[in-house]
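user: can you give me the structure for this one chain? C-alpha cells are fine.
assistant: on it. calling the predictor now.
[tool input]
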Amino acid sequence: MVVLGVSRLLSTLEASAQTEVCGGGGGFSHEFCDGLSLLDCTKLIESGTLKGPDLAEAYVQRSSCHPLEERAKLRADLEKAIEIDPRNYYALSNLGRYYRNGPDQNFDRAIEYLTKAIDVAGDAPQGVAWTEKYEAYLERRSVYEQFEKYELAIKDTTRLMELHAQQMKPPPMAPEGLRLPLTNGMKVGEALETDRRAGLYLKVGKLDLALADIDRALALTAGDDAASSYRAGWLSERERILKMLGRK
C-alpha cells in the first residue's frame, strides 16, 4: 500500500528514501521501519498537505512503524485513520487484528472491525477488492475459531468457498497454457476451504455434513495430480468419519 501524494511531498520535506516503506503495507510488521522512517511519516501527517483519505492512509502506514511494546500508539493511529476515513479498509482490518491478538484483547471489537472491513472491501470477482474481502473473512473466521464460535466460523468458511468459486475462470488474458493450471489451483483453494469446513462440522458433531464436505473436496480435485497429497489425507479422514458413523 502506498500513501497517495507521498511521492510529491518527499522532496519538499527532505525525507529519507525509507519514508515510502513506512508502514510496510498496513500490517503490524515494522521490519522496514526505523526511527527516521517513523519521523518521516510524522512529518507527512503534520505537514498539513495531506487531507481526507490520503491523511488516513498516512496514519495507517505510521501505525506499523511503532515498536511492538508501543502498541497503544499503533491502535491510536488506526483509530485516527478511521475517524478521518471510516471506510479505510486497512485501518479497519488491522484494528480487528489488534483486538484479536493485542494486549487488550476484545472479541466483540475484533468482530466489529473485521465485519466493517468486509463491508467496505467491495464485491469484485477478482483483483484487490476480492483479495481484501477474502483476507477479512479469513481473519474473522480465525477470531470465531479462537473463541470457539464454531457455527459462525462455518458460515465464514462457506463464504470463503463461494469466493473461491467466483475465481474458477482464469483471467481472459491468461495464456492458453496456464488456463488449466490456474483453474485447477482455484479448485484446490476451494477444496482446502471445504476441508476446513469439514473439520468445523466435526467440532460441532455434524458428522454427515463433515463427510459430505470431504467428498466434495475429493470431487473438486479429481484427476489433479498436483493435489495428490491433499487427496490422500482426505481419503484417510473419510475413512475415520465413516468409522465414527458406524458405517465401516
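assistant: here you go. The first helix runs from residue 6 to 13. Residues 1-85 form one domain.
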